[in-house]
Design a protein that fits this description.
The complex is a heterotetramer, with two copies of chain A and two copies of chain B. By secondary structure, chain A is mainly beta. Chain A is built from three helices and 31 strands. The N terminus of chain A is likely disordered. Chain B is of the alpha+beta class. Chain B is globular and about 40 Å long. The N terminus of chain B is likely disordered. Classes of the chains: A mainly beta, B alpha+beta. At the A-D interface, helix 1, helix 2, strand 1 and strand 4 of A face helix 1, helix 2, helix 3, strand 2 and strand 3 of D. Strand 2 of chain B pairs parallel with strand 1 of chain C, so a sheet runs across the interface.
C-alpha cells in the first residue's frame, strides 16, 4: 500500500506542472526502455476489415428486442461459426447487400430523440469491407414499418436500384438510385404490399386478393408498365406466406397449409406454374405444415427447396419448426427430412458448392448449421439477440 | 364513442387516399349494412380448430394473453404497462387507426366486436407479450397483419402496447 | 369459408366507391343497433394519468442492456407491486423528480442516427401526471457518460436548479434553471467528479484524494464560493463508494471495507463526523462487506441506515448482496439483518410512515419489497429489464 | 507505437485542459522516470487476496474473461466481436484515450504493461461481457473507473467493445 500512497502524493505534487511534453517523453521511455527484455512485442492497435464475403457467410437481423429501435446485423462465417463483425441500424430496419459485395445498406427509420421527435427515413450505405458509413440517401418518411421481413426492401440484380416498400397505409414503392446516391421517386402499388426485384427494372408486390402486381420502370425510376395478374391463390382458404424464396425472376411461394406455388416473373405479368404440395396425406394426418418467420429457402445450384415444418393445427403459422424438409423443386420429391436440434424460426440455405443450411431459433437465441441437403449437424453459434432474418451475400 | 367515430373518420379523411383507405376499410367494415365485419369470420374459421381447443384458461384475467377480449391480440398488453384493456398507459396515444375482431365473452355468452388499437408515441413497453395468431394474415392483407406497426395517424409511429376496445355486440 | 369469400368480393366491388361518409354511418349503425341487447357497454378509449406520487412508489432505471441507448424508467407502486407507467430516455440517462412532484426529468444524450451522428445532450421535462413531454433544455454535449449512477445529476431542494455532472474528461457541473427552462452555465470542479445538491444553491463533488469540494452558486448559476476540504478518507486504502446516501445537507458514505463516514455539508466546507463501522471483528472474519451498485440508503424519519452486504474478499465491491443490514445511525447499533430472497444489486428505503425496503436484482431481473426495518418479505415484481438504479419521489 | 503516442499526445493537447489532463494522467504515468505506473500497484494490492485465488483457468483463451492480458478488463471483449485482443472490429475506432494496467503473462512469467482501449463509434457489441473489478475504483478516481465510457477523443462516445494492448514489459 505504501507505494500506492506515494504515487498519490506524486500525483498531487505534479498537479501544476506543464506536462504534455513530459508525458510524451515518459511514454517513449516506457515503451523504448524495457523493450530489450520484452518477450512479446508491443501491440499495434488497428481496426480490422472484412475480406470479400464468402458464400457461406450469413447476415442475421437482430431486433434487439424489446427495444427494436436500434437493430443489429451479425455477420457470421457459417463455416467457422465465428462472428466477423456487426452493422447497426434503427427502427424496423431492413438490410441489403450489393450484388457486387462492395456495399451494404441499412434502410430504416430514426427519430431525433430515439423514441420520439422528428422521423427520418434513410438509406445508410456501408462499405462492405470496413463497415464504415459511406453516405446516406434520404427517403420519404413512409417506410412500411413492420417487424422486419424480407421483401420489405429489395435490390435489382445489377445493383443499380434499391426498392423500398412504403405504407402510410397507402402502399407504394420508393425507387432509390444507388449509383447516383439519390431517391428518384415513388411508384404506387394500390392494394398490394412489399417489393421484390425480379429483374434490373422490374419488381412484384403481393396483392390482397392473391394476385401479383408486376411493375416495370425506367432508369429515372418512372413506372413504364404495370400489370396485375388474376388471383394466383385464394388468401381466404390458404394464404401464401409473404416471404417467398425469390431466385432470379422466379419465386416459390409456400402456403399456410403447405402448398408450393412457383411463379414466373420473367414477363410483364406474373404467371403461375403448376402448384404442388409439401405434405402428402400421411403428413396432413400428422398435421405437418410450414411455419415460422422465414419459412422457405431455395438453392439455385441444386434446385432444392427447403421448408421449415412443424406439427400443428390451423393458425399455427408462426410456430417454430422442428424439421426442415428438402424437396427437388423439379420432381417435387422430398429428398431429405432434417430434424433440427433446436426448433427454428427462420431458415436459409447458402448458394455455396458445399451449401450450409442455417437454422435460426429465437428462444433460445441461436444459429445452427447443417450440411445441405443431407442435414448433418455442423455446429452452432449462440447469443445473437432476438434474431428474425437471415441474409446471404 | 362519438370521439372514436369522429377521430377515425377524420383520420381517414385527412390522412389517407381513397386507395389506401380501401386497405384499411376491410379492417372495419365490408358493406353498407355494416354486416358482416371482415374479421368476424375469423372466429367462424377458427372454430373447430386445434387453436380453439388449447389454453384459454385465464379468460377473466386481463393481465394474461388468454383474457377473452384479447382473442387475437398481438404485442405487449397495455394492461401490464400502466394502462387498461381499453386505455393507454400514461403518455401513450391511442392510435386513431386499428383493426377489428370478434371475441366471445364466456361471461355472458355473447360475441363482441372489438377494436385492436395500439398505444403509440413511446418506446416498447416490453411487458406481457402476446402473439395470438388466430386469423393472422400476411402483409398483403395488411388489415389482418399484426406485425405491422398500427400507429398510422398517431403522433409518431413508435409502438408502445396493445389494447382491445369493445365497439359493440355482434 | 363461404361468407368470407363473399366478403372479399364485396371488398373488391366497393373499391371505387367514395366511402368515408358511408363508413361513419355504418359504424354508427354498428354501435347503435346492437346496443339494446349488449351486456357490456362500448369501451371509451382514453389515456390514463398518474395520481400524485406516493411515498412508497419507486422509479427504476432500466439500461435496456445491451442496447443502453434507449433507457427506461419503470414507475412501480411498492405497495401493490403494480407497474403504473414508464418514462423513456437515451444513452446513459439520468433521472430526477421535482421536489413538488409535478415534473420528472430525463437528462441524457441522443445521437441523430441512434448509434451515430450528431450528439445532443438535453434535459427532457415530463409532466409527472401525464408523463407527456413538456419541453426540452439543451445542454453542452459534455455529460459524464457512465453506466448510470446516482449523483451524476442532482436537483436542489427548492426544485429550482438541476445540476449535471460533466466529464470531457475535464470535470465541471452544468447549472440548469428549471423554472426559467434554460441552461445557465458551467462551474469547473477540477479533480472532482459527480454532483449532489446539499442546499438550494450548494452542491458537493467527490475528489480524487478523498477530499470533498463544496460549491455555492447564485441565482444566475455563477459560482460564489468553492472550498475543497482536506482528504476525509484515503481512497488508496479504503475507497468510499461514489453513491452515498444523501439526505438534506448530510451524506453517509460507505467504504469498500464497510466503514461509514457521515459528512456534514451544511457549511461552506465539508466537515467529517466520526466514522464508524458496519462490520465488527466477527463480521470481518466472515468477510462481510458492502457491495453492489446502490449499496447504501438512509431513512430520515427513523434515522436508520441500510447497507447491502455480501461475503467476499478484496475487490468484490460489485458483488451482489445477500443481506441488508440496518443500523441506527446515531447509536451505530445494528438493528436488523435482512436475508434477501434474491441477492440484490441496488437497494432503497422509502421515506413512508410504513417504509418499504426495495431490493433490486439484476440477474434475475427483479424487484423485491420488504417491510423496513423488520425485513418481512412482502412480494416481488419481475422482468424489469436490466435495472441499475432506484429513485423515490 | 509512434502513432499511439502521437494520437494520445495530440488528443490530450487538443481536447483537454491541463486540469482534466491531470485526472487522466494518473492513468498513464506518475513521474518523470516513467515508473511507477499507477495501476501497476493494483496487481501488488490484489496479490494475496481471494480474488487472485479464484478462476483464471483460461489464461490462454482470448475469448474468455480469464485471458491473461484481460486481468482488469470491463466490457464486451472485442475478440468476440469481430476484432482481436488489440484490434477493433470492422467499423469501430480505437479510442485515443485509455487507461493502463499491468497483467502477468504466465507463458513467459513476465508482467506486461497493457493499455485498455475501448473501440468506439458503433452500438454495443453485446458479446463476452467481462466485469473484472480487480482494482476498480469509484468515479472520483476516473482513471481507474471502468464504468466510464472511455471514448474521449473518438469520433463518437458510443461504446462498442474493449481491447487490451501490450505497451511494453514492466
Amino acid at each position: 500500500m505504501a507505494e500506492y500512497s506515494f504515487a498519490s502524493v506524486v500525483l498531487m505534487l505534479i498537479k501544476r506542472i506543464e506536462i504534455v511534453a513530459m508525458l510524451a517523453v515518459a511514454i517513449l521511455l516506457l515503451v523504448g526502455a524495457p523493450s530489450a527484455r520484452a518477450q512479446l512485442p508491443a501491440d499495434q492497435m488497428t481496426t480490422l476489415t472484412l475480406p470479400d464475403p464468402k458464400p457461406n457467410w450469413v447476415y442475421i437481423m437482430d431486433l434487439q428486442f424489446p427495444v427494436n429501435m436500434l437493430q443489429k446485423i451479425w455477420i457470421i462465417d457459417g463455416e467457422t461459426r465465428k462472428l466477423l463483425g456487426t452493422v447497426f441500424g434503427g427502427y424496423e430496419a431492413n438490410f441489403e447487400i450489393s450484388p457486387d459485395h462492395r456495399e451494404m445498406y441499412m434502410i430504416d427509420t430514426y427519430y431525433s430523440r430515439g423514441w420520439r421527435g422528428d422521423r427520418t427515413d434513410v438509406v445508410t450505405i456501408f462499405d462492405a469491407h470496413t463497415t464504415n458509413v459511406l453516405g446516406e440517401i434520404a427517403l420519404p418518411p413512409k417506410r412500411l414499418l413492420i417487424v422486419p421481413k424480407r421483401n420489405t426492401t429489395s435490390i435489382t440484380p445489377d445493383g443499380r436500384f434499391l426498392l423500398v416498400a412504403n405504407m402510410t397505409p397507402a402502399t407504394s414503392v420508393s425507387i432509390v438510385d444507388l449509383k447516383g446516391r439519390k431517391f428518384l421517386g415513388e411508384i404506387e402499388t394500390p392494394g398490394c404490399a412489399q417489393v421484390a426485384a425480379t429483374g434490373n427494372r422490374q419488381f412484384f408486390s403481393m396483392c390482397a386478393d392473391g394476385s401479383m402486381l408486376t411493375v416495370q420502370f425506367d432508369d429515372s425510376g418512372k413506372q413504364i408498365a404495370k400489370s396485375q395478374s388474376k388471383p394466383l391463390f385464394d388468401p381466404n382458404t390458404d394464404p401464401m406466406f409473404d416471404q417467398p424464396a425469390v431466385v432470379g425472376n422466379k419465386a416459390y411461394f409456400v402456403s399456410y397449409h403447405g402448398k408450393v406455388l412457383p411463379v414466373d416473373f420473367s414477363g410483364p405479368e406474373a404467371a403461375a406454374q403448376p402448384s404442388w404440395s409439401l405434405v402428402d396425406d400421411k403428413d396432413v394426418a400428422q398435421k405437418w405444415r410450414p411455419g415460422g418467420w422465414q419459412t422457405v429457402t431455395y438453392q439455385a445450384k441444386s434446385g432444392i427447396l427447403y421448408a421449415l415444418m412443424h406439427q400443428g393445427g390451423e393458425w399455427t403459422h408462426k410456430q417454430f419448426g422442428t424439421e426442415v424438409w428438402a424437396f427437388n423443386a423439379q420432381t417435387h420429391a422430398r429428398v431429405q427430412r432434417i430434424k433440427l436440434k433446436t426448433p427454428g424460426y427462420s431458415i436459409r440455405v447458402s448458394n455455396a458448392d458445399k451449401p450450409i443450411l442455417f437454422d435460426m431459433s429465437l428462444l433460445p437465441s441461436k444459429l445452427e448449421t447443417y450440411s445441405a441437403p443431407d442435414g448433418k449437424f455442423l455446429g452452432e453459434y449462440d447469443d445473437i439477440g432476438s434474431p428474425f432474418l437471415l441474409y446471404g451475400p | 364513442m362519438d370521439k372514436f367515430v369522429e377521430s377515425l373518420t377524420r383520420s381517414i379523411a385527412q390522412r389517407t387516399s381513397r386507395r389506401s383507405f380501401l386497405a384499411r376499410l376491410g379492417t372495419f367494415i365490408l358493406g353498407a349494412a355494416a354486416i358482416p365485419l371482415l374479421p368476424v369470420d375469423r372466429v367462424a374459421r377458427a372454430q373447430g380448430t386445434d387453436f380453439k381447443k388449447s389454453a384459454h384458461k385465464n379468460v377473466n384475467d386481463d393481465l394474461t394473453c388468454d383474457y377473452w377480449k384479447y382473442c387475437a391480440i398481438d404485442g405487449f398488453l397495455c394492461t401490464c404497462c400502466g394502462g387498461d384493456s381499453h386505455d393507454c398507459p400514461p403518455g401513450a396515444t391511442p392510435s386513431p387507426t386499428s383493426w377489428v375482431g370478434t371475441c366471445h365473452n364466456p361471461g355472458d355468452n355473447r360475441d363482441y366486436i372489438v377494436s385492436y388499437r395500439d398505444c403509440c408515441g413511446k418506446g416498447a413497453c416490453g411487458k406481457c407479450l402476446c402473439g395470438n395468431t388466430e386469423g393472422e394474415m400476411p402483409i398483403y392483407r395488411a388489415q389482418l397483419d399484426s406485425d405491422l406497426i398500427w400507429c398510422f395517424g398517431a403522433p409518431t409511429m413508435v409502438y408502445h402496447c396493445s389494447t382491445s376496445e369493445i365497439v359493440g355486440v355482434k
